[in-house]
Automatic annotation (TrEMBL):
All copies of domain Carboxymuconolactone decarboxylase-like, residue ranges: 54-123
Protein name: Carboxymuconolactone decarboxylase family protein
Species name: Polaromonas aquatica
Top-level taxon in the UniProt lineage: Bacteria
PANTHER family xref list: CARBOXYMUCONOLACTONE DECARBOXYLASE-LIKE DOMAIN-CONTAINING PROTEIN, SI:CH211-175M2.5
Upper classification of the organism: Bacteria, Pseudomonadati, Pseudomonadota, Betaproteobacteria, Burkholderiales
Length: 130
């Protein structure tokens, strides 16, 4: 199989264009990000993913900055460069400062280190945490 290529708006099916239009309107942007152009190769996945992102990232019990910080932390841990860049931009837009980013990266690094230590040592969960 050849390397997947993005689907641009002018080449998109009406179903894909409808999702692209919703993304552009919801985010007040002139074009969709690359992730959506690549997901457009499978319109069902595009629609489902956009619907889920829109619902999960909407303001709720967690404010938008907290949601972006969590997404950024998970993206760093999962080694998704695209998502790290995207959610660093989103967190910055939502109010993340350099100091917050530094602290977040320290927490991510510490959590990953201690998670691996606990896994390697097979540390049982304390009764107090159950």
């Amino acid at each position: 199989m050849a390397k997947p290529q993005p689907i641009n708006y002018e080449d998109a099916s009406p179903e894909v264009r409808a999702v692209f239009d919703d993304i552009k309107t919801s985010r007040n942007v002139p074009d969709v990000n690359n992730i959506w152009k690549y997901l457009a190769r499978d319109p069902v996945t595009l629609r489902r993913t956009w619907s889920s992102v829109k619902e999960v990232m909407a303001p709720g019990a967690l404010d938008p900055l907290v949601k972006e910080l969590v997404y950024l932390a998970v993206s760093v841990t999962n080694n998704c460069g695209y998502c790290v860049a995207s959610h660093t931009a989103g967190a910055t837009k939502a109010g993340m400062t350099e100091a917050m980013f530094g602290e977040l990266m320290a927490v991510v690094g510490m959590a990953n280190e201690t998670n691996r230590l606990v896994t390697g040592y097979r540390v049982p969960t304390d009764a107090a945490f159950e």
